[in-house]
């Protein structure tokens, strides 16, 4: 009991949460997250929170989430036999869907806004053969560090989003490389600007 009290006091003293009520909730969320991860064979780092209502399933695949991440209510991380790897300090907001078929790698400090779908796989589309019976083509997706993905974005198989990129809401990244520090938007996503240092 005393250890729990000391933990809450430590949390408050570091300014992580402003009140005892929030501290208790945060402590519960940390405990729930550890239990959830253990039950479903997911690896999570220190301080990572999986909110109630999120769904994370690795099946025969692998899911690793770094430290101090938050997976919000309604988010879905589904490995489907592939691999999802997420770095530290990543936020996956409500109603995001992240698949792992062909391998999904997300760096650290990434913000993924609500309703985003990331799909590292695609169907073959040979004529004369039912789509549902055709094989998947999987090239994978890699997202670097310090990336902001706006609401409702679609990132499709074969895409590489380099570090520092900002993706405008509703955009579709259809493959290829999005260069470092680019600002992109549209369908398909095109470069519309670039992030510049604060002193310029």
Protein model, in words:
- With 200 residues, the protein is of the alpha/beta class.
- The protein folds into 2 domains: 39 residues, no CATH class; 152 residues, UDP N-Acetylglucosamine Acyltransferase, domain 1 (3 Solenoid), CATH 2.160.10.10.
- It is 16% helix and 32% strand.
- The chain has an 8-stranded mixed beta sheet with strand order 2-5-8-11-16-19-22-23.
- A hairpin with a 4-residue loop joins strand 22 and strand 23.
- Helix 1 crosses helix 2.
- It is globular.
Q: Keyphrases for this structure?
A:
200 residues; alpha/beta; UDP N-Acetylglucosamine Acyltransferase, domain 1; 8-stranded mixed sheet; 7-stranded parallel sheet; 2 helices
Map the helices and strands.
Elements: H1 2-13, H2 20-39, E1 43-44, E2 49-50, E3 55-57, E4 62-65, E5 70-71, E6 76-78, E7 83-86, E8 91-92, E9 97-99, E10 104-106, E11 111-112, E12 117-119, E13 122-123, E14 136-137, E15 141-143, E16 148-149, E17 154-156, E18 159-161, E19 166-167, E20 172-173, E21 176-178, E22 182-185, E23 190-194
Parallel strand pairs: 1-4, 2-5, 3-6, 4-7, 5-8, 6-9, 7-10, 8-11, 9-12, 10-15, 11-16, 12-17, 15-18, 16-19, 17-20, 18-21, 19-22
Antiparallel strand pairs: 13-14, 22-23
Helix pairs in contact: 1-2
